[in-house]
Every structure is written in structure tokens, then in C-alpha cells.
């Protein structure tokens, strides 16, 4: 499941490495810090480099805490932790070589001209570093307060926060119109009949959630379709005519 990210990071033997083996897992974490993430100073990486040391796990937990990893390493899902680390390393790798990747097919002259003529944004949000540890920590703190599930990508958690606050916490304004917050009782998901049985309770719950999300999307689509129909009716129901062009008799 990590093959594409390992290949992008140019990790040796990315196609065949067995990360279920604890020693390989530790070696990869040490390699990521040494070659890609570089959060520690050179002299502070000894704890992660000693992959056979009995206290390696303690150094690893401290390392994740320093990186503000949103995935709980004590929850037992090492794959989720490793996926977050690999994704974080990929983002740093792209940030280091952003210009190279973005301008791969452009000439140096074109790049220089484009940069010279680029408009300067006055929006302070455009100057934020969305990968900075303080920003990541703030997003995760907000998501935790809103009971949003952890995710390796903090920007997806931020998007989930935005959607939740827009749809559930208060009325919002869009396109000059004010929309009240939805009211009503919570949907009884646990008591809902799925209509079929997968023989797996966890999978049944996931299927219920997917069905509700699908129904929600269909309702949103129907609302937009109705708005388009109403807008079209306003134009066609009261056509403008020019009586001067009419002719009576032969």
C-alpha cells in the first residue's frame, strides 16, 4: 500500500520491502528522518538510527510528537502512522523541488518572464505556510475539538472542519444569501436497516454511512436542479413582446 510513495521518495527496494518486519519499519523511519524530513539536527538522530536498541520505540513516540503527527501511535495501527510519515515526506520533497517539478517542461526564459510578471497577492492567507508545524498543530487541535477523526493529511481535516461548521454549527452566508443552520433530530444510524447483510458488523456500518452520504449528495443535486428550473421559468413565464411588430388583417 506504500509502494507509490516509497517509489516517489526513491527508497531502495521500494517494490519488495516488507514493512511488517519491525526492523525494516524502523530502518525506514530512520531513513525518512535522515534523507527527507530532517526535523532533528544531525547529532539528535542517534535514537532513531539505533534500530536494534530496546528504547527505540520511546524515541519513535517522541519523534512523532515533535512532528505533531495526528495519528495516535498507541492505537495499534502502524500502517496509518507510516502512511502519514510517508505523505509528510512526499510533501516536503515536493516543497524542496517545487520549482523543478512545476517548470519541468518550461524553458529558463519563460520561467524568468513568468516570475517577473507574477501578480503580488494582498491576501494574507496566500502568505501562510500550510505545512508549518504551528499550522498543522492548530488544525489538529480544532479538528479534535470538533470530534473529527484523525487523518494523515491535515488539510483534509481542515476541509472537514470547514464543512462541519458551515453545515451544522451556525447559519452561513453564501452569494449574498443567509442560510439558517439545519434543525431536527439526529438520524438514528444504528437503528437503520441497511437492506442487505455483509456478515460483517463494521462493514455494515460503513455501508450505512456511504448510503447516507449518497442520499445527501442526491438531495443537494436535486436542490440545484430545482433552482435552475425556477430560474428558467422566470425567463420563459413572462416573455417580452413588441406589439408594434404585430399586423392585423390582410
TrEMBL record:
<feature type="region of interest" description="Disordered">
    <location>
        <begin position="103"/>
        <end position="122"/>
    </location>
</feature>
<protein>
    <recommendedName>
        <fullName>RNA transcription, translation and transport factor protein</fullName>
    </recommendedName>
</protein>
<dbReference type="InterPro" id="IPR019265">
    <property type="entry name" value="RTRAF"/>
</dbReference>
<dbReference type="Pfam" id="PF10036">
    <property type="entry name" value="RLL"/>
</dbReference>
